[in-house]
Amino acid sequence: MKTEDSDNSIAYMVAFCAILVLGFVLAWQYSKPPPNPSSNVTFANVGPISTQSREFTMRTSLALQSMPEDGDEVLKNRAALLTFLQITLENADPATLSSPDGRKFAMLQKQLTEALNTKFPQIKVQQVWITDFITSPE
User: Contact at 8 Å (CB) between 53 and 38?
Assistant: First the structure.
């Protein structure tokens, strides 16, 4: 009778150890941080850009999002991009620049992205992000 009890307790101990090991393996597997999703894009900071027109004065900084393979091209053409963005922002609609409406601001970012990709098709900018923005009426 005692041998049956000791056989059962050994089986229970082995099952408990197997479950414990499996639990540790699963906890280790799921405790790893997920892969970095932003590793497939690169950002190049441009600015600060200061512009002044008859209607407004503005100071802004931008970040250009592109694929990692296009990042070097962005950095090589940084001066030309900066000049082009400055001219484009000087010609921007003052109502858009001074509007608190986020949709107009997003539209401005989209227009800057499209203008850059038209002027510099070799660079392939995915998105222009306005990171800092200060404006005042003249």
Answer: no
Residue 114, CA distances (Å) to 12, 85, 109, 133 in order: 67, 11, 9, 20
Note the Cα 68 to chain centre separation in Å.
Answer: 12
Number of other residues whose CB lies within 10 A of the CB of residue 21:
10
Q: What is the pLDDT of residues 26-55, one digit of tens each?
A: 888 887 776 666 568 888 888 788 877 777
Q: What angle do CA 110, 62, 136 make, to 5 degrees?
A: 90
Per-residue model confidence as pLDDT tens digits over 70-107 = 777 888 888 888 888 888 877 777 777 666 766 777 88
CA distance 133 to 118: 24
Model confidence, pTM: 0.62
For residues 30 and 113, the answer to whether their CB atoms sit within 8 Å is no
Place of tokens 């009778």: 1
